[in-house]
Amino acid sequence: MPSPIPVTRLLPKDFGLEFGACSSPLTKTASGSTLRVPTNKFHGKVAHRLWSSVIHWRELQALEPIGSGGFGTVFRGTYFGETVAVKKVKCVKNKLASRQSFWAELNAAHLHHQNIVRVLAATTCTPAHLNTKDNIGTIVMEFAGNINLQKLIYGLTDLLPVEKCIKYSIDIARALQHLHAHGVVHLDLKPANVLLSEQGVCKIADFGCSFKISSTSDTVTHMNEIGGTFTHRAPELLKGEEVSPRVDVYSFGITLWQLLTREPPYEGDRQYILYAVVGYNLRPLTSRNVFTQFFIGQNCQKLISRCWDGDPSIRPTADKFVDELSVLL
User: Which residues are catalytic?
Assistant: First the structure.
């Protein structure tokens, strides 16, 4: 699993800061078991391109729960007067997994892209009056909306035009393009982890399963513990093989299929599905009308089939399917 992002890697060489300490479960500095973090407030241009390792708690107000998951709860609130989302990562039975999930959330914190939910601040330090025994850390993020694609696909009765599906898929593809260019693999791409803003822009969220691939490492990366959602998990992950950006491409193929069909990808026993995906190349059906009666659907069917191919080398890169999807609009 990924290590926390060193603050010094995010700062210009000539940028001076005072540093304070914030406990980290996964790193040690030369002076002890603490992660060194900036204690001062950023100003000017730097404030727009860096996430902060300090949360100004007095500015964080009006927290209202809007969702929860295996590792924490998400709130909507205000931070310096702006609407934000706040994720509190809790400690579950597997304490190491909880801590890894918190630090994995920060794998893309240094990236700014219109289709990726931006991290504003994160810390493991919580004031005594706000702290709870099961709290691992807190992350303040931009508020990207109340609706995710899961709700849009299965919860709304309104028609979802093919053109709009393509537009949403291009947003997701551009986010993957940016992540992969910076060595970040999401590992849990699915409709529930794609938020839809009020402006109709899709943004990838929830990086708790993500992985940072080191460009300097000569070793092949394997996942000892597989996170993510089994319906969207690439066969090579199920077989314990190499982790690469192509696992996100597989998940993208399943997600695009869901957008176009508005149906669940599989039904039946979980273990049977996992076995059939690996052993018999089980995939969702592409014989639906949307793939056969329309030119756009026919092209999407071909792209989807390549995205979820059992051979990762056959799958297109994010760069490739951004181009392929863009010409369909």
Answer: 188
